[in-house]
Amino acid sequence: MIRLSWNNNGNGFTWSIMLTEKGALKGRLEVIPSRKDYLIKRVILLVPKRSMHKTIEIFSETYTVGDFSILLEAELMLLKGITTNHDISSILSELEKVKMKIDFIEKFLGDFI
């Protein structure tokens, strides 16, 4: 399940994706004013299921507006290419296979750690 909410001050939004066993992925995208221009900050956090107050930062980057628009355009072109060449059900099936492999590797490594 994905939840999306706008920030109170209107400068961005947050989203969260509930993960079945691990907790949740939370992300934040916000516009930050700087001296010359605006910057866009993108943050992705992992919130463990057992300790919701302890977050682990997975990813954090700040972009200029121009750089972010180039990145966004590239991501949209990639998504468009994938969805026009394959139907959504086959994409979801492939993602499920990847998830199963990651779960297996996680379990395998968990036995050694």
Q: Count up the helices.
A: 2
Distance between the termini: 30 Å
* Count of domains: 1
Please give the share of residues in helix.
40-55%
What's the multimeric state? single chain
For the largest beta-sheet, the strand count, sense and barrel status come to: 5 strands, antiparallel
Instruction: Tell me the number of strands.
Output: 5
What order do the helices and strands follow? EEEEEHH
Q: Strand order, main sheet: write it out.
A: 1-2-3-4-5
Low-confidence stretches: none
* Tertiary shape: globular
* Averaged pLDDT: 80
Structural class: alpha+beta
**Backbone CA Rg:** 17 Å
Q: What percent of residues are in strands?
A: 35-45%
Please characterize this protein's 3D structure.
The chain is α+β, with helices and mostly antiparallel strands and 113 residues long. It has one domain (2-112). The chain is built from 2 helices and 5 strands. It has a 5-stranded antiparallel beta sheet. The two termini are 30 Å apart. The mean pLDDT is 80.
